[in-house]
Amino acid sequence: MSVPTSLDVEQAHPRLRELTVVDVRTPGEFASGHLPDAVNVPLDRLVRSLPELRRAAEGGPLLIVCASGARSAGAVATLAPHGVPASSLTGGTEAWAAAGHALEYPGGVRSRAVWAMERQVRFAAGALVLAGLLLGLLLHPAFALLSAAIGGGLVFSALTGTCGMAVVLGRLPFNRRPAQSRARPRGPAADGGNLRGADRVLSYRTRRPRRRVHR
Q1: What pTM does this model have?
Q2: CA distances from 138 to 132, 134, 144, 151, 203 (A)
Q3: Which tens digit of pLDDT belongs to each residue from 56-93?
Q4: Tens digit of pLDDT for each residue in 121-157?
Q5: Residue 131: which region, alpha, beta or left (left: phi > 0; alpha: psi -120 to 50)?
Q6: Within its chain, how far is the Cα of 31 from the centroid?
Q7: Cα separation of 109 and 199, whole Å?
Q8: How far apart are CA 20 and CA 43, in angstroms?
């Protein structure tokens, strides 16, 4: 059976129990709210997690999720050549929450919200362009090249579907830090917000029987 490359919220919600949800956002974003039973495999760890993702896909459909759907669509395109069929959630967690569906939080406690990566990139790019222009006016015209470089990088990002700035920002401590909570979650999904446990959770889900959905 062919797997669609994307599912919208209305299509995904009734099928959630039969899907393995893989959230490709950073641990910091994941801790600010994720789909029920989602496993956190950040985008920069996707290729390293291919064996576990492939086994999980053999047990049932994968639903790849991010904040807006952009990164998850890229992840689906990355997985396809490796023989791992998956669907991207159109609109991401933003669309899921806007439709009135619940989000879960590691440990059951909502942590301090971390900006979505797309928002972080816009802020960083805008700040660097503004800094380049101001330094060019106040100190030396050569600083204007910084603004030009950022503009060129954004054009390259749009043409290639990649974003080097997002990769750099994703390595900052507040994006790498998993959820901190006083409550200890229970069950195999408890490792969803932990990078070291994500592969183990995926492996568990390939072994567990799928719950039947009564129609």
Answers
A1: 0.68
A2: 10, 6, 11, 21, 57
A3: 999 889 999 999 999 999 999 999 999 999 999 999 99
A4: 888 889 999 999 999 999 999 999 999 999 998 888 8
A5: alpha
A6: 11
A7: 23
A8: 16
